[in-house]
Design a protein that fits this description.
Blueprint lengths: L1 E9 L5 E10 L2 E6 L9 E4 L4 E4 L1 E6 L37 H8 L2 E6 L7 E9 L9 E11 L2 H8 L8 H25 L11 H10 L5 E5 L2 H14 L3 E5 L7 H6 L4 E3 L17 H8 L4 E3 L11 H10 L4 H6 L3 H7 L16 E4 L10 E6 L2 E5 L1
Parallel strand pairs: 1-4, 1-5, 6-7, 9-10, 10-11, 11-12, 12-13
Antiparallel strand pairs: 1-2, 2-3, 5-14, 7-8, 8-9, 14-15, 15-16
Helix pairs in contact: 3-4, 3-5
């Protein structure tokens, strides 16, 4: 057993305890509140004068997919040989021994959604994982959680260099529609065949991978920066009745009312960096706050390694500086991220029965000089200052 006591606890579940305690047993939060009495043999962390929060969650990054300080040999996020690769799974590329995992824990990040990049129209399957472990199978929270797809400049650039489709936004949309149509037909044939194996369609690994999207079991995770690309992703998702989350959403502040009216969530970023291409010309830290004030559920991302994952708190702090409500910015890297990823039954807030993913800070995490004192994942202290 582990007891954290005397800390100012932000549960991200509505309650804030000025001098609260958390009792942890077998990797779960057993009790949270004030004046908790723990068994005499419990390990105790005295957090007096400190901030206690849920571990932070990055809802969109590429942790372990592009390894630190390596280059091509560690770059496993983009299979740039075919624009349609839904069968690819992030768990087959993630290297949990990459040192960025350790740095993430030092930054208070305990869970991430990581997966393929945006070179392909359909890039493959994202996974939600913890940031501690030496075997990816033991780190998975949920897999797959989403199917990555991409609009805008990236697929155009990659396949223009190969002199093959897609070289235009029209072709990107067309290839995605074609795949969704094929997946619908594949699903229909499977349903019509029932238990009669002789009537089943020929096995197609791409279509098998798309079934979870067509069945509404996971969303398309749509890379889209520019407003027109965001709206194209919405148009196609509505055509086929599939779920959608908006990723990057760089010009989302320009069309916030449309995103709100469509009932969609936005995973915004990376907002800290250069405007390296045309579709980033309206990049601003205003975006998360504008969307939030319009009623859109927002998460904030690093897109690691674009921004090192350990700086997720800085990204949220800069969104606050640009006008986002401070508590809403905290939600954007905790409970909102968990809800968008559909893993909030386990992580994202401090609540009895949830995973004991907890971070003790010496100051508020939005303070530039703040440091993580303890990072706890599944009840185990995995980093100590």
């Amino acid at each position: 057993m582990l007891l954290i006591k005397n800390g100012k606890i932000f549960t991200m579940d509505g309650a804030v305890y000025e001098e609260g305690s958390i009792l942890i047993e077998q990797g779960k939060i057993k009790e949270i509140g004030e004046n908790i009495v723990a068994p005499l043999d419990a390990e105790v962390i005295d957090a007096e004068g400190k901030i206690v929060m849920p571990g932070f969650i990055d809802a969109h990054c590429h942790l372990g997919m592009w390894e630190d300080s390596i280059g091509f040999e560690g770059a496993d996020g983009n299979e740039m040989t075919d624009p349609i690769t839904p069968q690819l799974r992030a768990i087959d590329a993630i290297n949990p021994l990459d040192r960025s995992f350790e740095e993430s824990r030092e930054g208070g990040v305990t869970c991430v959604a990581t997966g393929p990049g945006s070179a392909n129209v359909i890039g493959g399957q994202f996974a939600a994982i913890k940031t501690y472990g030496d075997r990816i199978d033991d780190m998975v929270v949920k897999e797959p959680i989403a199917m990555k797809c991409a609009f805008g400049e990236n697929p155009k650039r990659v396949y223009n260099d190969k002199n093959k489709s897609p070289m235009t936004r029209m072709a990107t949309a067309s290839l995605l529609r074609e795949t969704l149509m094929k997946a619908n037909e594949y699903k229909r044939k499977l349903e019509d065949a029932g238990d009669d194996s002789s009537k089943r369609p020929d096995f197609d690994i791409k279509m098998e991978a798309m079934l979870k999207v067509m069945n509404g079991e996971m969303p398309l995770k749509a890379h889209a920066h520019r407003a027109d690309d965001i709206l194209t992703s919405i148009r196609i998702a509505k055509e086929f009745g599939v779920k959608l989350t908006l990723e990057h959403c760089t010009e989302g502040h320009l069309i916030a009312h449309h995103i709100k009216n469509e009932g969609l969530s936005a995973v915004v970023g990376p907002s800290f960096g250069e405007r390296s291409k045309f579709e980033l010309k309206n990049l601003t830290f205003d975006t998360p706050g504008v969307l939030n004030k319009a009623g859109v559920k927002v998460a904030i991302m690093t897109d690691h390694p674009v921004i090192p994952l350990k700086h997720l708190n800085l990204c949220a702090a800069l969104a606050t500086k640009a006008g986002m409500d401070e508590n809403e910015a905290l939600k954007a890297i905790t409970i909102n991220a968990a809800e968008i990823l559909d893993i909030d039954d386990r992580v994202g807030s401090l609540k009895e029965g949830k995973d004991a993913d907890i971070v003790v800070w010496d100051k508020h995490p939005f303070d530039l000089m703040s440091e993580v004192l303890y990072t706890i994942i599944d009840g185990e202290v995995v980093y100590k200052k």
